[in-house]
Write a structure and sequence with these properties.
The chain is built from nine helices and no strands. The protein is mainly alpha-helical. The protein has one domain.
């Protein structure tokens, strides 16, 4: 499976030659698609090499890189269910091409693969080195504030009749 950089023309991306990304895809590419492609360019160098050992009997399995990209697309596009993801892949040829599918797998196939990714902690293994390489030894500070109105919480309780 080609990486996203190879699909988009690696030399042009590296040397900064500008070209229209729309020429590569058969349908219109939205800004969300472009942002997702940029995300994949950063993340794919940290993905572990995933080779599924296939059996010699039966049909060939789906490409592992395409399945991982679809898992990332599910999170990036805030797609709640596997059914919704599959419907989106069937109706959006640009996303299907970005993920690397020629044929979209069934819901059961997605569910089995995502369960194996969760069991093997694939995303933690991928994103952990990514975060540590970009942040190094820096401490990330943030403030979490509760947005609940405090005046409603401080009212006196209504007295009950005895």
């Amino acid at each position: 499976m080609k990486s996203i950089t190879e699909i988009l023309g690696g030399c042009q991306m590296v040397f900064g030659i500008s070209y229209d990304i729309q020429e590569i895809f058969e349908r219109y590419v939205t800004n969300e698609h472009r942002t997702f492609i940029q995300l994949l360019q950063v993340i794919e160098e940290f993905l572990p090499v995933c080779e599924r050992s296939g059996n010699l009997v039966g049909r060939r399995s789906y490409d592992e890189t395409a399945m991982i990209r679809s898992c990332l697309a599910k999170q990036f596009f805030n797609i709640a269910t596997v059914t919704s993801l599959r419907n989106r892949l069937l109706s959006d040829p640009s996303l299907r091409q970005i993920c690397g599918f020629t044929v979209v797998p069934s819901e059961a196939t997605f569910s089995r693969r995502y369960a194996s990714y969760a069991q093997n902690r694939l995303m933690e293994q991928t994103l952990g080195p990514l975060v540590s390489s970009y942040l190094g030894g820096h401490i990330v500070g943030h403030i979490s504030r509760d947005s609940t109105g405090s005046r409603h919480a401080r009212r006196r309780p209504i007295p009950r009749k005895k």
